[in-house]
Every structure is written in C-alpha cells, then in structure tokens.
Amino acid sequence: MPTHLTSRFEDAFRYAANVHGGHVRKGGTPYIAHLMGVASMVLEAGGTEDEAIAALLHDAAEDQGGRSRLADIHARFGEAVAAIVEACTDSWEAPREAWMERKRRYVAHAAHLAPAALRVSAADKVHNSYVLLRDLREHGDRVWARYIATPDDILWYYESLVRAFREAGGGPLVDELDRIVKGIQREIGY
C-alpha cells in the first residue's frame, strides 16, 4: 500500500528548507537537494511518512543545533521521527570529533539500527555514495579535494556500513549501496 503524505510532510519540508537554507553540498548543489533525494529513496523503498519526514530532517540535529534541535523536531514531528533522526546522527559535539572516530562509532551503531532508521540511514548513504561516484566519473580524482578523509578511509567507511547494515537487516537500499561502492572502487582502480 502506498504511503499517504499529509501536511506534516509539507511542514517538514519547509522546516528542513529553513534549517538548511543557504547551505550547499560539496560541489555547490543546494543542500535541500540531498534531503529530497533521501526522502524520495525512503518512500520508493516502502518507507512511512514518519520515515520520509525523518529523511528530510536526518541532518538537522547533527549539523544545525544538536540536542536542542532534536528536541524541537520531537515537539513538532513526534517521537518516531525524532528517534530516527537521533539514530542517524553521528555526532552531538561542537566542534565534532575526528572524522575516523565518528565513523567508527557510527559503523558499530549501524549494526543495531531499527528497520525505520536503517531505511533512512541506508538511503542517506546511497545518495551520498552515488553523488561521489557520479562526481568521480565527471571530474576525476580532483573530487577528493572536497573531502577531509582519504579515498581509502571513505571506501572503508562505505564497505563497513554495507556489512553493518546487513547485520541490522539489510534490504534493497543496502544492496544498492554495495553496488555503488563497487562502482567507486572500479572508478579509482581498486
């Protein structure tokens, strides 16, 4: 049965656009494009409205306000959405811990994600890795200058997430992530 989207989803879209307004991704794309892409993947994978809302808001607490932002999301969109956003957050610190420390901790956490959080987190990583693969194909190795981590570390992270996500229950988005990671490996000659 298809998910019916209500005015809550529209409210979440406006909220996300406000929270991330003016932000751009590596390469200059408006940040909201990433959030829309993740929400689309979640819905296409059978996600609920709460999961789609969490997809729109999955970076809000991590990037824009920490626990107080999470409390606001809880008040506006409910416990289910807030729980998914919390599960998708890899750092509450400002400034953030070192990249590898955060990613190792998140990989360990990802192996135990509940199905709703798994769907949102996997969709996020599918979107991120696809953008990386596409940019590698279009721009070559100069893409790596946008990242604070090395290509080896980024590949380790995505490969580790595939294993952790499978341990948590897997699914079509995890299989897609695995295919994209293999594409990145081919593109850089691994």
Note the main attributes of this structure:
190 residues; mainly alpha; Hypothetical protein af1432; 10 helices
Description:
With about 190 residues, the chain is mainly alpha-helical. The protein has a single domain, classed as Hypothetical protein af1432, CATH 1.10.3210. Helices cover about 70% and strands about 0% of the residues. It contains 10 helices and no strands. The longest helix has 25 residues. The model has no long low-confidence stretch (mean pLDDT about 95).
Topology summary:
Blueprint: H1 7-19, H2 31-44, H3 49-57, H4 60-63, H5 66-77, H6 79-87, H7 99-110, H8 115-139, H9 151-168, H10 172-187
Helix pairs in contact: 1-3, 2-3, 2-8, 3-6, 3-8, 5-6, 6-8, 7-9, 8-10, 9-10
Radius of gyration: 16 Å
Just name the CATH architecture. Orthogonal Bundle
What general form does the structure show? globular
Intertermini distance: 41 Å
User: How many discrete domains?
Assistant: 1
What is the percentage of strand-forming residues? under 5%
Percent range of helical residues: 55-70%
Question: What does the largest sheet look like?
Answer: none
CATH superfamily: Hypothetical protein af1432
* CATH domain class: Mainly Alpha
Tell me the number of strands.
0
Pattern of helices and strands: HHHHHHHHHH
Give a short summary of the structure:
It is built from 10 helices and no strands. By secondary structure, it is mainly alpha-helical. It has a single domain (7-187), classed as Hypothetical protein af1432 (Orthogonal Bundle), CATH 1.10.3210.10.
